[in-house]
Amino acid sequence: MSHTYHPYHLVDPSPWPYVTACGAMFTTLGAVIYFHYSQPWLLMLGLSVLVFIFLVWCRDVIRESTFQGHHTHMVKRGLKLGMLLFIVSEICFFFSFFWAFFHSSLAPAIELGTMWPPRGIEVLNPFSVPLLNTAILLSSGATVTWAHHAIISGRRDEAIRGLALTILLGFIFTMLQAMEYIEASFCIADSVYGSTFFVATGFHGLHVIIGTTFLAVCFGRLVVHQFTRHHHFGFEAASWYWHFVDVVWLFLYVCIYWWGS
């Protein structure tokens, strides 16, 4: 029997796409049930399934890449293109939130008192915690770039320090935003201002948590010598995602926190 040799990786049959779809369905249905009846069990099950899938799917991709050698130059090109297209889809995702915000803020309806912010909304001071969070996230962008250049240069200890600092800054950002939410005088149900504010900043916060988790996985791989100067696309993808999160926050800060207040 003849064998055809090619640079592509034909993956083995995997149960994870099906289980991921089930987890997403459980999460969606569970969220609806939780919002209406305050029963969180199906939502927790769905989220648990998604976290489990994240772990095992990362394990499989790392195994295929690092230990089985399936990620050839051509495969890495495909992965890079896939990551870039994913980030483009995320840009479209956040564009819809900015569209909703400017649709309401540039021409406030009479129900809002024809003013923005709407009457009765006490907005957050953009030069307190939001400005601090901006400095933290921009600093984390610098530290992840430092870690990336250290990997390329073969300076592993520096890369570990830079990546650890990035993860710490991401964690601090999340804690400060959670504190800000607790202290806010308005909630997601307070007119269109509360809705657009919490949906846009909340989804950004979720992306920060995902990005921090992504970087934490890369930190573990870096510690156990799974990244080399020429084989570190997992970290490269995480750094691209983190820079995207940085840029989105700058737009959020300028448009919603500063101009919107």
TrEMBL record:
Keywords for this protein: Membrane, Mitochondrion, Oxidoreductase, Translocase, Transmembrane, Transmembrane helix
InterPro entries for this protein: Cyt_c/ubiquinol_Oxase_su3, Cyt_c_oxase_su3_dom, Cyt_c_oxidase-like_su3, Cyt_c_oxidase_su3-like_sf, Cyt_c_oxidase_su3_a-hlx
Residue stretches spanning the membrane: 16-35, 41-62, 83-107, 127-147, 159-177, 197-219, 240-260
Coiled coil: none
A Gene Ontology biological process term: mitochondrial electron transport, cytochrome c to oxygen
Pfam families from the UniProt entry: COX3 (PF00510)
One GO CC term on file: mitochondrion
Domain Heme-copper oxidase subunit III family profile: from-to ranges: 4-261
UniProt keyword Electron transport present: no
Gene3D superfamilies named in the record: 1.10.287.70, Cytochrome c oxidase, subunit III, four-helix bundle (1.20.120.80)
Principal location class: membrane
Cellular localisation: Membrane
Domain of life: Eukaryota
Record-level Gene Ontology MF annotations: cytochrome-c oxidase activity; oxidoreductase activity
UniProt record similarity statement: Belongs to the cytochrome c oxidase subunit 3 family.
Record protein name field: Cytochrome c oxidase subunit 3
Organism expressing this protein natively: Cubaia aphrodite
Taxonomic path: Eukaryota, Metazoa, Cnidaria, Hydrozoa, Trachylinae
Gene: cox3
